[in-house]
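Hi Y.,

Following your request, here is the sequence exactly as I used it, all 306 residues.
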Amino acid sequence: MTQGDPTPADPRDESIAAPPPPTVVIVSGLSGSGKSVALKTFEDLDYYCVDNLPVDLLPSFVRSLVREDELPPKIAVGIDVRSRRSDLSKLAQWRAALAQLGLEGRLVFFDAEDDVLLRRYSDTRRRHPLGHGGLSLQEAIRQERTIIQPLRDEADVVIDTSQLNVHQLRRRIIAEFALNKGTQLSLLFESFAYKRGVPADADFVFDARVLPNPHWNPELRPYAGRDPKVRAFLDTQPEVAEYVGQVSGFLDTWLPRLRGETRSYVTIAFGCTGGKHRSVYLAETLARHAREQGWEEVATFHRELD
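Below is the corresponding structure, written out as tokens. Let me know if you'd prefer a different format.
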């Protein structure tokens, strides 16, 4: 090596071109605060998802994945009050165990105001996990806050969903937890019904009401646009093929040009009359096309179904 030549990189220096460690996101929070929506969104973002895992089993669960040939690069684990028989105060120890395995662990906690939780339970008529032994719903929520406080204290991110609807929450998660955050756009393909209004935050909106409607086929009416029977019907319609070709060409041209802007996600919405057949089919079809084009962060949301 002559004088002035750059010093060669030390192959022992793991900081050089080292891949990022696998990510484990612990999803926790109050019942009714949006944890189920969060896990579904992580699943759409290609996370390996497990719900209702006892917290003391977290290290052994991840260790079992490490022993497999291909460790998922992104893992999301749901831990909440249903794990109350575990010592939730020991979460810091379990997270330290993850670090020893070479994994980066993050805890996101979903919260909401009591009156919002009461209203959500009233709307869905679901039973609270602690709603036993004569506890009122308000008492169950109060008790849950006490039990789960150690998880909130350990949280890296606390998201209050009191003022968020379902699709706003999904967008927040996509923006916050995209794998290539800051370097690549995340795409959300959404379906909706025009009779309930256009999504306020959509960047692109496409009207599918001009396409053949499976609703008028009695055999297809009960199914949604994700069902193979509906897909098979729409796949054979020339107008649908032309529509998909033109929209995919438009998105292939213009979405890459948005990468340079200061945004982390783009929402592409498809609307039809009921938000069940055509719009769902198109959102799923174009999302699949985007993945085939190399977009890594692609999710779907069907407002009238999810």
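Confidence is low (pLDDT under 50) at residues 1-19.

Thanks again,
Q.
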